[in-house]
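User: Quick sanity check before I run a bigger batch. Here is a single chain. Can you write out its predicted 3D structure?
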Amino acid sequence: MEANLTRLKMDKDFLANLEKEKKEALKNEDIVKLYDVLDTYLALDMDEEDIDLLYQKILEKAFDTLADMLTKGEVFDISKDSDLYTARAIYEHALERWDRKEYKGANELFLILSYVIGDESLQRGMFLALGLTAKKVSLDEFIQNYVDHEKLDENSLFFDKFTKKGEEFLKSERDLINKELKKIEKLSGASQ
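Assistant: Done. Predicted structure follows.
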């Protein structure tokens, strides 16, 4: 695998095509294509500035789309790639904030995602993250103790398979999670 990646990094035709795809994805602001290019850049350990540029454009597009959806009262249709990748971007950003111990910001993003994710399994994942960030449990502890790695597909974009401890948390902390979910009513009331 490593040898193939090294070959690709030296393949001028491949790199020229990748650059063309990057410019096209940035121009069209296509979140799926942006992620395809970003994932390739990450796999090949390419230039950090390009990676940052792609990720920033992904976040801009995702949050613009989210704002539009919230205004229209829509939810993500995860069967559509554009919705799936928009949800992925917001979720990854929430995980980054959680990792930096920005519990309030991460919690707010998980709260919003819990309302706009149109998939029950993913929604449960948002509920667990919502409760854990409210309790200021670290991201590392979440990943180590609450995520069932054996049940996760290697291509999973979300942590939505839980250990017994994760399932127990969802049950035992139902009141806390419901309290957190009620915050959306305050947010929606404040914007009117």
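The mean pLDDT is 92.

User: Great, the batch can go ahead then.
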